[in-house]
Design a protein that fits this description.
Helix content is 35%, strand content 18%. By secondary structure, it is an alpha+beta fold. It has 2 domains: 101 residues, Arc Repressor Mutant, subunit A, CATH 1.10.10.1050; 166 residues, Nucleoside Triphosphate Pyrophosphohydrolase (Alpha-Beta Complex), CATH 3.90.79.10. Strands 4-1-6-5 form a 4-stranded mixed β-sheet. Strands 3-2-7-10 form a 4-stranded antiparallel β-sheet. Helix 2 crosses helix 3, helix 3 packs across helix 4 and helix 3 packs across helix 5. Bound molecules: 7N-methyl-8-hydroguanosine-5'-diphosphate (M7G) and magnesium ion.
Length: 320
């Protein structure tokens, strides 16, 4: 990353040293020790710092450049004294982080309307795919608790009173376990709006019939052409579940059901759509990112890593 020199940050759009110092101390140094135990965890902290930078610093000062996580990580490691010694290993650290991330189990929900003919899908901020609201488990978090939290973060809807711990569909994709709880009979009058910034760009009721065909493909296209991510493999079992529980649904015989967008980021900022929901909810406090611990030293197959020394250095930096 030789391009990331910061001699004249004002013109280059590169963040000034003070901002990087502030992000580093706030998100990486000034956190519980257990979050600094391995680089896999430290990179989750760096990711939080990156989100804060993109969502707050850049928003306040649009002349600051946007970065990919890899670029931002490089910048922080090069400009944060306690991380600097590890710059030579950054490629390995980053590779291990990304491969670790896809092994963390994911849970979420399949939210069905009262007719059981439509489900809630969310569209990511980057990219164009739709998926069920879902996300990675935090360390020691139970499957259903993670589903409730992720659905709340991504849709603003609290399923805690509706969730039945035994009603779920689970699939394994490579090394990742994905469990989706079935939450059926949700009113299509329900208001949805994500609590996180720049994670979700749109929320919609999508017709199950439009999401066909069922397949094992992680990435697929619905009949209307929309791109789907980790949706198709659940549809077969979902259809079977719906047939079995059909007696509790409320069919809507009058009008043919259509998919309907219920929240859109751009509409939201323009405030122009009647479907757009204003968020009275407040953004949750940034919780400490803790992930399933796979043991210290896991990510350092290719070089020797002295956990004690980085912890001492961080402690020193924190106390300074
Ligand atoms: P995640 O939390 O890594 O995945 O977010 P999970 O919820 O499935 O566990 C998935 C992607 O959404 C990230 O890689 C980011 O691109 C984006 N993203 C998520 N969050 C919470 C934010 C955020 O607060 N700010 C920004 N800018 N992007 C986010
Ligand atoms: Mg998440």
């Amino acid at each position: 990353m030789s391009g990331l020199h910061r001699s004249s940050s004002a013109q280059s759009g590169l963040p000034p040293q003070e901002l990087l110092d502030d992000l580093c101390s706030r998100f990486v140094l000034n956190v519980p020790k257990e979050d600094q135990q391995s680089f896999e965890r430290i990179l989750f902290l760096v990711e939080y710092a990156h989100w804060f930078y993109e969502d707050n610093s850049v928003e306040k000062n649009p002349s600051l450049k946007s970065f990919t996580l890899k670029e931002f990580t490089t910048l922080l490691f090069n400009n944060c004294d306690v991380l600097k010694p590890y710059v030579p290993h950054l490629d390995d650290i980053f590779k291990d982080f990304t491969s670790y991330k896809v092994r963390v189990p994911v849970t979420g929900a399949i939210i069905l309307d009262q007719s059981y003919e439509r489900c809630i899908l969310v569209k990511g901020w980057k990219g164009t795919s739709w998926s069920f609201p879902r996300g990675k488990k935090n360390k020691d978090e139970e499957d259903h608790a993670c589903a409730i939290r992720e659905v709340l973060e991504e849709t603003g809807f609290d399923v805690s009173d509706l969730l039945n711990k035994d009603q779920y569909i689970e699939k394994i994709f490579g090394q990742q376990r994905v469990r989706l709880y079935i939450i059926a009979g949700v009113s299509d009058e329900t208001t949805f709006a994500p609590l996180t910034k720049k994670e979700i760009s749109e929320i919609a009721w999508q017709r199950l019939d439009d999401l066909q065909p069922t397949s094992d493909e992680v990435i697929s296209r619905g009949v209307t052409g929309i791109k789907l991510y980790m949706v198709a493999p659940f549809l077969g079992i979902l259809k079977a579940w719906i047939s079995k529980h059909a007696s509790s649904r409320t069919p809507k015989p009058d009008a043919p059901l259509r998919g309907i967008s219920v929240w859109k980021a751009k509409n939201n900022s323009l405030g122009s759509s009647s479907l757009t929901v204003d968020t009275q909810q407040t953004k949750p406090a940034p919780d400490v990112p803790v992930v399933v611990d796979t043991g210290p030293g896991k990510s350092f197959r290719n070089f020797s890593f002295d956990t004690a020394s980085i912890l001492r250095a961080m402690e020193a930096a924190f106390l300074a």
